[in-house]
Amino acid sequence: MSDCRHVHAHLSEWVDGDLPEALRALVETHVDQCAACRGLADDLARIRDAAGRLGPIAPPDHVFLETAGQLHMEQPPREETRAVPSARRATVQWVAIAATLVLVTVGLWTIARPGAPGTATGTSAAHPADLVAAELELAVQHYERAIQTLESMAAADQLPIEPGTTVTLRASLDAVDEAIAESRQALDATPDSQPARESLFDALRQKVGLLQATVQLLNDVRPDGSEPAPAAGRSGRSS
Amino acid sequence: MKPSNPVTGSRWDADRALAHRCQTHAPGAFEELYRAHAPRLFGLLCRMVGRGEAEDLLQDVFLTAHRKLGLYRGQSALGTWLFRLATNVCLDHLRSRQVRQAGLSDELDAEPAPHGTSAGPILGVLDRLDLERALSTLPPGCRTVFVLHDVEGREHREVAELLGISDGTSKSQLHKARLRLREALARRPARGEANP
Known about the structure:
The structure holds two protein chains of two kinds.
Chain A: H1 4-8, H2 11-16, H3 21-33, H4 35-52, H5 61-74, H6 86-112, H7 128-155, H8 163-189, H9 194-221
Helix pairs in contact in A: 3-4, 5-6, 6-7, 6-9, 8-9
Chain B: H1 6-23, H2 29-49, H3 51-68, H4 78-102, H5 128-136, H6 140-151, H7 156-163, H8 167-187
Helix pairs in contact in B: 1-2, 2-3, 2-4, 2-6, 3-4, 6-8, 7-8
């Protein structure tokens, strides 16, 4: 087997040690004598070895939140109401908030699409414009309830986040609130404007995202409803 | 059958216990499952379909896993069970994408492999980011085989079984993927080297 092209076809199997003995000997003899094929085989082995060293990739935090929220919504209601240990209470509240935020996100996405049909309000016979307005109102109500819950926890000093982080979060929320207010004004001026509607939804989505990040941050510093961790880093529960 | 190895048996007992806690909605159980396995599965999904779609698929994997945990009998590690589930979710996604885009084909990457001498050698250190970037440019067929075999360490027999192809096709697709990667990696100067 002196033809390089014939050898090339078997080089991956050769570097993996997958060739039958007779063929392996032929390829080996050729590679010993041919610098080009030897170089190619070396590269194939380097690629294989480098691929084997590619490690896990940490998913963004919001993926867990959204998954947990979806799961929470899928779970059947508990058969009995048990007293929730106080150490768990905060975690349960955060999961509920996460689920609400996912609902809102899904709702916003649904009604942000041009011509999206409405189903949540049960007013399928209504005019599409009225339907969108009703959907918007419903989504905003969900959203505002989630914010109120967060704010009441903050007022009760239950946010186990460092003061500096809280200030940053509040500044970000204020900036997003300004964007929401501006978008609302634009939508009031031109109610049928698709760009104005999308701008409002973008701003609302930003705020939902920010709140989701906040919830994740809270989960990170107090994963089991235990005492707040000294810093807002990951709790190291991954294994 | 209960594993005879006490270490392995203990780990699988823990896996079964975790699966049971997830099924009964025990507080913190799902998060424990997610934190333990999500990074590895997300790596697999990112390399198979790209990061954007991988986020959605990761959610699908864990939601499906949660629904199907009742089927987990502890006959393999929970990580192995989840890996298989993730692979199937991913392959279903790729098949439906193929159907949407150009019709489903039973063949993998049908394009001829680049000639081994069409690219120069890979110069310098083979950087992880360069490899990830080059990997993302591969056609889905040979990329899937490469990820399962070279990244995830599956044997050709397992890859063939997962993809419903022959061992020989798995080998030829792997070779094609490596040649394409070499071509892509040889084009770019190695990190830290000045451009001529």
